[in-house]
Amino acid sequence: MIDLDIDMRQYDCPFIDTTDDVDIAFSAVQWQLDTDAEKLETRLIARADSRETLDDGLRVLREHPNMTDCYIISKRDGVAQIGTKIEQTNAMRSIQRNGGYITGPFQIENGRERWHVGFDADEDEDCALAELEQHNDYRVKDRDQFGPSTLFDLLENSESAMQMLEGCRSLTETERKTFEAASQRGYYETPRGTTLDQLADHFNVSKTAVSMNLRRTERKVLQAALGALERMDERESL
What we know:
The chain is of the alpha+beta class. It folds into two domains: 2-145, no CATH class; 152-237, Arc Repressor Mutant, subunit A (Orthogonal Bundle), CATH 1.10.10. 48% of the residues lie in helices and 29% in strands. The protein is built from nine helices and nine strands. It has helices spanning 14-21, 51-63, 90-97, 122-135, 148-156, 158-169, 173-184, 196-203, 207-237; strands at 2-9, 24-34, 39-48, 67-76, 79-87, 101-102, 107-109, 112-119, 137-145. Strands 1, 2, 3, 4, 5, 6, 7, 8 and 9 form a nine-stranded antiparallel β-sheet that branches. Helix 3 (90-97) packs antiparallel against helix 4, helix 6 packs antiparallel against helix 9 and helix 7 (173-184) crosses helix 9. The longest helix is centred in the C-terminal third of the chain and has 31 residues, at 207-237. The protein is globular, with a radius of gyration of 22 Å. The chain starts with a strand and ends with a helix. 23% of the residues are buried.
């Protein structure tokens, strides 16, 4: 299986056009393509900085000429779960016509969309990308090719991967930025490329604050990793 991570701007997509006009973002939760009716039905999470901006974005989305149906499932503050049905876009048609399929959720923000698309053959991939280039602006950000054993391993250990992901998501913004800076500047290398004092100067905080942020981050990531390893051991024992 060939898996592509594509950064795309479609010129006939209601979601992309809406994020051009309003500071709102969409993340797909579920989707179903009706190839006979040439419509895409989706469940998405819409997110904005305020309820007013969210309402404005949903209004613009509903009024788009390619939007067939748009309804709210739930809403709280600047976040809403919505259901939509849109006309099949040119990019969807190109992917589907050349044997492609969606392999993961898509995200739309700031007038661009992130797609995860799979193909079974190089020829199908080449034809689909050639068609996409005619009517869309896109960049392939990443390309992976998996054999059956790798795919099986990914599916078997999806719970472990989710646990690691949740551990990373539990980090606060300060913890994440401190951890990233420490790693990028060589704090975890031997010999160390930076010190706690230098990191403290970089963030304009005390040495104690940097140390505490790193310890909290390390504890969260380590707990997530250990939990993931335990799940892997349990599955292997079965």
